[in-house]
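Many introductory courses stop at the sequence. We go one step further.
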Amino acid sequence: MTSQLILIAGPYRSGTQGDPARIASNLRRLEQTALQVYQRGHMPMIGEWVALPLAAAAGSNAIGDAISEKFLYPVANRLIEQCDSVFRIEGESKGADEDVRLARELGKPVYWSLEDLPTCAG
């Protein structure tokens, strides 16, 4: 198995009611999963790692403002086109569900657990 570029999909804002501490907790969960994916020999990607700096550069002042909304989901969609697969972590998230739908539409694998993710040398 060769190393894959894998989008980590899961809750970011979902279930937080906009609470920055809960959003940060969700990001930590995504990043912990990214670390585990990396340790299995793959390159993880989280959409917010790209979308948030782009939105800030475009003038966004807060997560969820009109400018940030132009980046969060569109960036994930572009990333899925570039990624080899998607790893969906637990938790309700319409955005992550859309990531899974798009990955499947593009014929890309979707992993739901680390046990299902192939390990590769890397």
